[in-house]
Amino acid sequence: MEIEPATLRVSDQERDAAVTRLQAAFAEGRLDDEEFDGRMRRALVSRTRGDLAELFTDLPAEAARDTTDLAPATLPGPGRFQLAYKGSVRRVGRWRVPERYTAVVYKGSALLDLRAAELDGRVTTLRAVAYKSAIDIIVPPGVRVELSGFGVSSEVYGDQSASADVIVVHGTAYKGMINVGTRPR
């Protein structure tokens, strides 16, 4: 009895490759936030190759190319520090995040979307300072998130396995807020 390829069980490596493909499609603007979130969740719980293949049926071939050969240095990076004075910081799509990154916002707003970002290290530390401001940090599924600071709840959530990437958020909010989650508000 021969098994159909679509019914074969997938490995963690195949799931990771699917996540990378979805991140590329999101960064290219082919998927909106809701579609990207839904497909990422489906990719992470897929059991068969057929389950994974369904995620890409409406995406062109160039969105499905393998992006693992791109060196992180080829991606645009903001540096280690960003400041917004009565303005905003907005980092979305495909961008490189250094191991230590700081965003300071005074009477403004910030959106740091890490779902399609390339993290430089296994542990990424984000320091967020919101003075009369709002900072939204969107993290990808499959990472462990550790929150601490003033104006941010201290908790750990996400993937607790030793192999998971870690995003540490140290926040300070004065008359403002710092929101961390896997979906936009």
Q: Any key phrases for this structure?
A:
single chain; 185 residues; alpha/beta; 2 domains; six-stranded mixed β-sheet; four-stranded parallel β-sheet; elongated
What Rg do the Cα atoms give?
18 Å
β-strand amount: 25-35%
Trace the largest sheet across and list its strands: 1-4-7-11-9-10
- Please work out how many helical segments DSSP would assign: 3
> Which class do the helix and strand fractions yield?
alpha/beta
Q: How much helicity do the residues have?
A: 10-25%
Low confidence ranges = 63-76
Biggest pleated-sheet summary:
6 strands, mixed
**Roughly how many Å apart are the termini?**
50 Å
Q: What's the pLDDT, averaged over the residues?
A: 83
The H-and-E topology, N to C, reads as HHHEEEEEEEEEEEE
Number of strands: 12
Q: What best-fitting shape do the alpha-carbon axes yield?
A: elongated
Description:
By secondary structure, the protein is an alpha/beta fold. The chain folds into 2 domains: 5-64, no CATH class; 72-181, no CATH class. It contains 3 helices and 12 strands; from the N terminus they run H-H-H-E-E-E-E-E-E-E-E-E-E-E-E. The protein has helices at 12-27, 33-45, 49-53, and strands spanning 81-85, 88-91, 96-97, 100-106, 109-113, 118-119, 123-131, 134-138, 144-150, 155-158, 166-174, 177-181. Helix 1 packs antiparallel against helix 2 (33-45). It is elongated, with a radius of gyration of 18 Å. The N and C termini lie far apart (50 Å).
